[in-house]
Amino acid sequence: MAVSGQRRRPVVALYERIADAVHDGTYPPGSTLPSEPKLAAELGVSRPALREALLLLQEDGLLTVRRGVGRTVNDRPPRRGFEHIQPLEELIGAGGPLRVRALLRTVEEPTDFTTQHLLAPARAELRFWESVLTGEGTAAALSHEWAAADEVLDRVHPEFARALRATEPDAPARGGGPGPAASMLAVLVGASRETALSAHSGITATLLGRRRGDQLGRPADTPAVLVTQVVRVGETPVLAAKHMLPTGTPALPVLQSH
After folding, report:
1. Mind listing the pLDDT tens digit for each residue in 74-98?
2. 16: helix, coil or strand?
3. What residue ranges in the chain does DSSP mark as E strands?
């Protein structure tokens, strides 16, 4: 999954400058970057700041360090923007995406969580999806996902609004794209080919508790990781989620998207 901040630190701005140079061909795929002293001088930055930005670029797959050669641009640098944001079923699927089993698809009024993260007014109607992610017959995660109110989505991301409506039981059959057995985030990503997304996630340790333990087939006192996620279009939140990952879930890679 992807993690980003609303305010960009200087190292993130530097990351962007170098990434822009990669994507516009200044440093084409397969090329070797100038040495740290030379690149720092060209960019007018300190070497410690440059080194941190280069490390982030390496972690995000744009650069590779080769002994005796230096830092080279990968032949196929990852595309930028929302492509770094992946549905949970793809992020933690070992050898293939996990299956999404829908437990609940409904509309509900805002909770404290959605009021805070979606800025939803009282008595707004928000789509809520509860799903279990399974792999090889074992429940790997429980997801709760909320979409912003329709009037917000119609204004800032009408493609996502239409895609959500198309998943409703009475919607006409359609070809392509994720069907009902998909996460809300998968629907969002699929509808965002022309729309840049950003996301912010938080990770905390907790216990499953009785209800979530029952849903995942685990004891209530099973240790778990709770991931909260908010996805935005510009400054407007369009999706908020809670993902509960119990002990034994495949490793969750955390990516930084800038």
Report:
1. 876 554 433 357 888 888 865 567 8
2. helix
3. 2-3, 63-66, 70-73, 99-108, 126-135, 138-147, 198-207, 223-233, 236-246, 255-256
List pLDDT tens digits, range 10-44. Answer: 777 788 788 888 878 898 888 999 999 999 999 99
What is the CA 73 to chain-centroid distance, rounded?
24
Residue 91 CA to residue 228 CA, distance in Å, equals 15
State how far the Cα of 110 lies from the Cα of 120, in Å rounded to an integer: 6
In sequence order, what are the beta bridge partners of 70?
A: 66
Is residue 250 within 8 A of residue 139, CB to CB? The reply is no
Whole-Å CA distances, 247 to 29, 91, 100, 142, 147:
40, 16, 19, 12, 28
pLDDT, one tens digit per residue, over 217-230 is 999 999 999 989 99
